[in-house]
Amino acid sequence: MGKFDRYHKVVDKRQPKMELEKIKERITLITSKRESLLRLLEQPDLGTLRIDVNQALEELDDLIDEFKRTFPE
């Protein structure tokens, strides 16, 4: 590898971009998993994991909100 090569990323232009329908399917899946996190939060013996579950919920909510802003229906 030459000096110049390590500073440039190789991009495969043959790889198709993710289609909107596929993104919508994944957001739907993520939304369904959010419900599992909510049920997990109801567990009284969660201990310090409660912090991680809350963080995961916040990040999921941010992702879902960003999707809705980017692709309003």
**Helix count from the secondary structure assignment:** 2
End-to-end C-alpha gap = 48 Å
Class based on secondary structure composition and strand pairing: mainly alpha
Query: What average pLDDT do the residues reach?
Result: 81
Estimate the strand proportion: under 5%
Model description:
The protein is elongated and about 40 Å long. By secondary structure, it is mainly alpha-helical. It starts with 19 loop residues before the first helix and ends with a helix. The protein has two helices and no strands.
How would you concisely characterize the structure shown here?
The chain is mainly alpha-helical.
Can you tag this structure with a few keywords?
2 helices; 0% strand; mainly alpha; 73 residues
Write the layout of secondary structure elements.
Elements: H1 20-41, H2 49-70
Helix pairs in contact: 1-2
